[in-house]
Fold each of these.
Amino acid sequence: MNTIQPHFSPGDQMVDRDLFRSAMASVGAAVHIVTTDGAAGRAGFAATAICSVSDTPPTLLVCLNRSSSVYQAFKENGVLTVNTLTPSHTVLSGLFGGKTPMEERFAAARWLKGETGAPVLADAAVSFDCIIDTRVPSGTHDVLFCRVVMVREGQTDDVLAYHQRRYHRLGQPSLLEG
Ligand SMILES: NC(=O)C1=CN([C@@H]2O[C@H](COP(=O)(O)OP(=O)(O)OC[C@H]3O[C@@H](n4cnc5c(N)ncnc54)[C@H](O)[C@@H]3O)[C@@H](O)[C@H]2O)C=CC1
Ligand SMILES: Cc1cc2nc3c(=O)[nH]c(=O)nc-3n(C[C@H](O)[C@H](O)[C@H](O)COP(=O)(O)O)c2cc1C
């Protein structure tokens, strides 16, 4: 009788953290600034770990490190806006990427107020204003499932991307398309 022998015990095996990061650096992604405001104050961070989950109800997921200085504000406010960046926001992304005081981060751009009260970046490629429906802890991060209550579309197709630890311009058609 043919039996399939498992090559590993699934329990506790995993690749090294640095190998994982190095592999993930090969996966390009759009860059966003995720913002919140409310009783716990205004906060924002740069993010690539964002993805569309469902269109009914319209849902995005955002992965947020629990050790980040902004974590508590997002948890308590319960709302956020995902602002998708353009290449003109490369410096802004660096400011929201950590360490910079919150007032300095927000002073570097023009903001509007979304329906939830979270800051909307005036010249974003697109913004999704959301209510955080569910928080699921996974490893070092919380996965935030966010219901989209308002969308604001920008004037550009150019999107800022992050690949191999560097910023790039997204939005040009593939060469195959001619
Ligand atoms: N998902 C996340 O939390 C991300 C965090 N970062 C943070 O920004 C800084 C600079 O990052 P890089 O220049 O890209 O070099 P890096 O070597 O720290 O990260 C390379 C890639 O690994 C992934 N990654 C990095 N940190 C992660 C984390 N804590 N959890 C899950 N995935 C992670 C991301 O896809 C990132 O582009 C680092 O402090 C990094 O932790 C950057 C990208 C995503
Ligand atoms: C390009 C880029 C993408 C990032 N993506 C994420 C992400 O998806 N999730 C996350 O929790 N942190 C991400 N970070 C890190 C946060 O932006 C950073 O931890 C946050 O600004 C908080 O920093 P602070 O603790 O110094 O305030 C990213 C940083 C950069 C530069």
Amino acid sequence: KTQITWWHAMSGELGKKLEEIVANYNKSQDAYEVVPTYKGNYTETMTAAIAAFRAKQQPDIVQVFEVGTGTMMAAKGAVYPVYKLMADTGTEFDPKGFLSAVVGYYTDTDGNMLSMPFNSSTPIVYYNKSVFKKAGLDPETPPKTWQDVEAYSKKIMESGAAKCGFTSGWISWVQLENFSAWHNQPIGTLENGFGGIDPKLTVNGPVQVKHWSNLKKWQDEGVFQYGGPVGGDDAPPKFYAQECAMYMNSSAARAAVMNNAKDFEVGFGMLPYYSDVDGAPQNSIIGGATLWVLQGHDEDEYKGVADFFHYLSSPEVQADWHQFSGYLPITQAAYDLGQQQGYYEKNPGSDVAIKQMTLNPPTENSKGLRFGNYVQIRTIIDEEFEALLSGKKDAQGALDAVVERGNKLIGDFAAANQ
Ligand SMILES: O=P(O)(O)OC[C@H](O)CO
């Protein structure tokens, strides 16, 4: 059998499910064996793949998170574009079958899809219905606005129903990038980087500054508890232990939430917005990851990769993965299948993510972002957020620093890739 190596970043419930999908594929045919390897979180997996490529030890497939897209697109000699792979191997492939928000993110300016969508998400609100009830709030009504989040949190804390109002995973992704799209505010010039290689960040606008300054105030009042840098590993336990009543994170946190929220009922809601910001709520943007194929392998392996991708994007496999994980149904057929199966009716709240992402046709500010070196910029965002929380900087100072430090990295990237 020809072996296909796949480096991925899925741990916990998601990692187990990924292995099950691979095992089913391996059983379904005799020619190829896909060998999945967990390489750590998204940043670690991407870094490992780049190092391996330099050492000529690269896997066939690597899972790269959405913010690595700008960097991967520029790595022309290292990447075997998916549209080309599918054409070269004569494998059936219809990019139009994917949801447009997903395709748009991974398509180059000539309209070619460069990586294979697999696990696209968007952030939503999870809330503890049992705590809401104890606090005298309606458990069927999630907060709509940030004003609601504040008022509900105070009621929850004052009634003693929970110690904290809310926590959040992925500060950069949820409280800055998606926050901006949801309020129709630009993250950067040149259509958030989609329109050219040398954009400038603009995350220090008044709406973002107001929000970060509220987050600092809410932290000081105990309304908000920080979940830590990168994905925010400290956030989920605060929600599971019923310390914080609301939790903002990826729609794909669903699998872990369902597994860990044993003693209380969970509700799902869209992200909150400031009702005094014109154009909000707009639509949220995707996160998660896609699969990139790396150069340097033989034709047989690539045939296997294409065959595996075909399997992965079939409606049955996609619908199963989506329904288990909370990742979006990335093809229309997988969504239609879920509807036929009655999945969304039987699982109230399971369609919040897709509704929120498609709430309005995307604007230049809400189709995503594409900046070189953005993985490093994410680290800067975390650092500056921590400087804000510790009182070293105010919100304007922290976000100005993100812009200044981030623009330097984008400029370096543009100079190296022009
Ligand atoms: O937790 P995920 O897989 O939905 O990814 C969240 C962010 O998009 C990562 O950049």
